[in-house]
Specification:
This protein is mainly α and about 900 residues long. The protein is about 60% helix and about 5% strand.
């Protein structure tokens, strides 16, 4: 047997197929008479025995897994528990069965007396004919178990088995092996003649492991069982060895946490059953490659100095030698966790120099391939500061923008101080991380030291250094909110905007990104050019994260400018681009702002929460202020507590630094809206004297309207509307016209109010703007009602705005059920009018269709939405996002 099953010494084997014949040979003594008994405390694994029961419907079942995986136990347990499923004959193979005569000797003992009549077969075909003839009278399957197949695997044995299953019969061959056999497995798969059970199928689940430890009277907590399953990867022998170790431990919790591949029992088992069975060259490859968490053929060659790494790794997989493929193409592999720990302990036993050399080779290979994390990790472990320096210089920006700052900080912390003093480029990186953590004093000190030493570099390296120095200074300015100071470095930073190598493209992208962020904060129109260039260059240079950051900033810039449509276009384009799993805080803030203006406060709040959770990119005062501005827009229509909290957060974010004029204006506008919402218009104060900014003018007009100064509100709002041109954001025009309409209504000019409201709707309709209209409620409502009664081109939008004003918070909870069927375009058009006060006849008039057509569409809408009527259909439509939700 292969060591998978422990058989009690006093156990009486159950006879499945008895062979009475001449005195047995050594081969015959291993065959036929007995199926190994399963130890009494072996776990009954129903899922596996059921899988095997189903598997033997095919002619060949292959159970291939590493030593100690439980192959023999599974087959023996199945045979014991399913005695009626098939007649079972068992052969534990050795090298003697690799020949025709040797295999027939064992097989004939398993088949019984009839097989002994006649001469011994001399070819695979003769063996197959004899077997088919012997099984012809059988009425149920005959399962031939070939255990330890790897001991007898040979071309002759493979040919014999292929001949035996070539024609339909009741023969079922079950192969248990540590090494994938030489059979034509792919041919058997294509012919649907092969079932397979592999090591991952045999791995213990947490529930099975818990039962194992319970039977061993080991009271482990669920998290301890999970830890052991994770460490052993469910390997049966590993869990059994853990149980034996824990039986002698007074403190199981500590023992569980310390159980690893260097445990004496694990070491002994893996060395004897796995490592010692490999050739000397294969053992050397395993030891030298164990320093890495994943390995491929070229990396194995770099670590061993060989050229056959890929072939040897594939051979180890075929041998089920605890080597696990990580991809479908067989390029990357890893070692079983316990096996990897054993190998590393064996390599460490050779001395620190040998271990460092392997780490050095790994670091150089990963660095050459652009794998920054692994290069830094192994470079630090090797003490190869040259590799660490180069990996940091080439990749630190990418790592930081992805949020992988821990590996940067770890490398920086482990570089000796005297070495760091000799590496000005690395000092720049350390300074940048200080600015990220708001430690400006230490960051500035590092910048000064780096600048002084950087002057001693050679011309080429000095040029690269000066470029990076300028970029770090830009980032410092952004992090600390020093927009004016940062833009003072724009000329020097422009030196970064040259070069077409991939590294140059990425540096140019970062330079444009940082300049764009600062110019955006200053209200400079050139910000759009910089951010667009950053995105294009980053994609060309393969820096997808930087591209995502640049696009996110563009979306946020447009949103804060009030260009909701442009922001939406950028966000939609981002959704179609291959950014991977990158989530960008700026993009989430833009989504929150857009959703708010469209009236979807629930979606806005979700986006705002995601923005708060993002760790992509370093923190900075600018981002904190932008977050507070978007939060203020959402909170202005919330309850008093949320509104006050947003006002406090906005004041905190704006305090302690000099705001550029553009940001100061946005902050003032946001504060006015929040004060109006709190009923504190008396606190608007000096902000009322600021003119020339549409966002602030609209907010101040709302404040005047709330104070009852309708004439002043009208004049201020119309100042924005009259000054608007084709480049003025629609959001500001809509807001101004809505306030002016409300003021006219309050002054008794109903006709003028209706005209202004209609103009506001015309500007709002293309972008779906609703909140700017709702802000002017309740004074604007009579004007909107007038339009509904006497004619408007925007009935649906009016209905949605009025519904938003009067509805409560949108329902939250479980995801709504989808419609029974997708609604047609005409059905959606009718649905959009349902929140309004229009009758079916009026809806028909709006859509230029007959009343019967509208009724037909309504019937389909109700059916598809599972709605009982108009009100229920509106509720379902809001849940599904088909019409504007409530929540204002």
């Amino acid at each position: 047997m292969n060591g998978d099953v422990a058989v009690p010494a006093n156990a009486r084997p159950r006879t499945i197929a008895r062979a009475t014949h001449r005195p047995p040979s050594a081969a015959a003594s291993r065959a036929g008479a007995h199926v190994p008994l399963v130890a009494e405390r072996v776990i009954q694994r129903e899922r596996l025995t059921a899988s095997l029961e189903q598997a033997i419907d095919r002619p060949v079942t292959l159970i291939a897994a590493p030593a100690g995986a439980g192959k023999t136990t599974l087959i023996a347990d199945w045979a014991r528990r399913h005695p009626g499923a098939a007649r079972v004959a068992w052969i534990t193979l050795s090298a003697e069965e690799a020949t025709i005569h040797g295999f027939w000797s064992a097989l004939s003992a398993a088949l019984g007396k009839a097989a002994l009549r006649g001469p011994q077969p001399d070819s695979p075909e003769e063996v197959a004919e004899r077997v088919r003839a012997l099984l012809a009278p059988a009425r149920r399957p005959f399962a031939l178990v070939l255990d330890d197949f790897q001991e007898a695997d040979s071309p002759t044995l493979s040919a014999t088995l292929h001949a035996m299953v070539a024609q339909p019969s009741l023969l079922r061959v079950v192969i248990a092996t540590r090494v994938d056999p030489g059979l034509a497995l792919q041919r058997l798969r294509v012919a649907d003649q092969l079932s397979e059970i592999r090591g991952h199928d045999l791995a213990f689940t947490v529930a099975e492991a818990a039962e194992l430890f319970e039977r061993e009277r080991l009271p482990l907590a669920s998290e301890q069982v999970e830890s052991l399953v994770d460490r052993t990867e469910g390997w049966a022998a590993g869990l059994r060895l853990a149980a034996l170790m824990l039986a002698d431990e007074a403190d199981p919790a500590t023992a569980v946490s310390e159980f690893a591949g260097d445990d004496r029992a694990v070491v002994s088992y893996l060395i004897s059953e796995v490592l010692d069975r490999q050739t000397a060259r294969m053992r050397e490859l395993l030891l030298r490659t164990a320093v890495v968490d994943r390995v491929c053929g070229p990396l194995a060659d770099a670590l061993t100095g060989g050229v056959t790494g890929q072939v040897r790794l594939e051979e180890l997989v075929r041998r089920n030698a605890f080597v696990v493929p990580l991809d479908r193409h067989g390029r990357w592999f890893r070692y079983h966790a316990l096996f990897a720990e054993l190998l590393r302990s064996q390599l460490a036993a050779r001395g620190g120099a040998a271990l460092r050399e392997q780490h050095r080779r790994a670091a150089e290979w990963f660095a050459a391939q652009g794998h920054a994390r692994e290069a830094l990790d192994h470079g630090v472990k090797a003490g190869d500061w040259g590799v660490v320096r180069n990996a940091l210089i080439d990749h630190w920006r990418e790592l930081r923008s992805e949020g992988s700052v821990a590996i940067i900080d770890s490398a920086l912390d482990l570089i000796p101080a005297d070495v760091l003093e000799q590496l000005p480029q690395v000092q720049l990186i350390a300074a940048a991380r200080c600015f990220d953590r708001d430690d400006a004093a230490r960051g500035d000190a590092l910048l000064l030291r780096a600048a002084a030493r950087g002057r001693r570099l050679g011309s080429r390296r000095r040029a690269l250094f000066l470029r990076d120095l300028a970029l770090v200074r830009l980032e410092r300015a952004r992090s600390l909110g020093d927009v004016e100071g940062g833009l003072a470095h724009a000329t020097v930073a422009s030196a970064s905007l040259e070069g077409n190598l991939e590294r140059d493209l990425c540096a140019r992208a970062v330079a444009h990104l940082e300049l764009g962020r600062l110019r955006m904060a200053a209200g400079d129109d050139a910000a759009e050019i910089d951010l667009h260039a950053a995105s294009e260059l980053a994609r060309a240079g393969g820096a997808s994260t930087v591209a995502a950051l640049a696009d996110g900033e563009r979306a946020l810039m447009h949103a804060l400018e009030g260009r909701v449509g442009r922001s939406t276009v950028v966000l939609d384009a981002m959704a179609d681009r291959p950014y991977g799993a990158v989530r960008v805080a700026a993009a989430e803030l833009a989504r929150a702002f857009v959703s708010t203006e469209l009236g979807n406060t629930a979606a806005a709040s979700e986006s705002l929460a995601r923005a708060a959770e993002q760790r992509v990119g370093p923190p900075c005062r600018l981002r904190a202020l932008q977050y507070s501005l978007v939060r203020a827009r959402i909170a202005a229509r919330s309850d008093a507590q949320a509104t006050q909290a947003a006002l406090d957060a906005l004041d905190t974010a704006a305090d302690g630094w000099r705001l550029p004029d553009r940001l100061a204006t946005l902050v003032a506008a946001a504060r006015v809206r929040l004060l109006v919402a709190l009923g504190r218009t008396d606190a608007v104060g000096a902000m009322a004297t600021i003119e020339g900014c549409p966002e602030l003018d609209v907010a101040l007009a709302l404040s005047l309207l709330d104070d009852g100064d309708d004439g002043a509100a009208h004049r201020r709002a119309m100042g924005v509307a009259d000054a608007a041109d084709s480049d003025t954001p629609a959001l500001h025009v809509v807001g101004a016209l809505a306030v002016a309409a409300a003021a006219s209504e309050a002054e008794g000019d109903n006709a003028g109010a209706a005209r202004l409201a209609e103009r506001a709707l015309e500007h709002a309709e293309p972008e779906g703007l609703r909140l700017a209209l709702a802000d002017a409620a309740p004074m604007i409502e009579p004007a909107l009602a007038h339009l509904l009664r006497f004619g408007t081109a925007h009935r649906s939008l009016i209905g949605e705005v009025l519904d938003l004003v009067h509805s409560g918070d949108a329902a939250h909870g479980e995801a709504p059920l989808p419609p029974r069927e997708e609604l047609s375009a005409r059905e959606l058009a009718v649905l959009r009018y349902l929140p309004t006060m229009l009758t079916s006849q009026e809806i028909a008039g709006e859509l230029f269709v007959s009343l019967n057509t509208v009724k037909s569409h309504l019937k389909n809408v109700y059916r598809k939405l599972d709605a009982d009527g108009r009100r229920d259909a509106v509720r379902r439509a809001r849940e599904l996002g088909l019409v504007a939700p409530g929540g204002l």
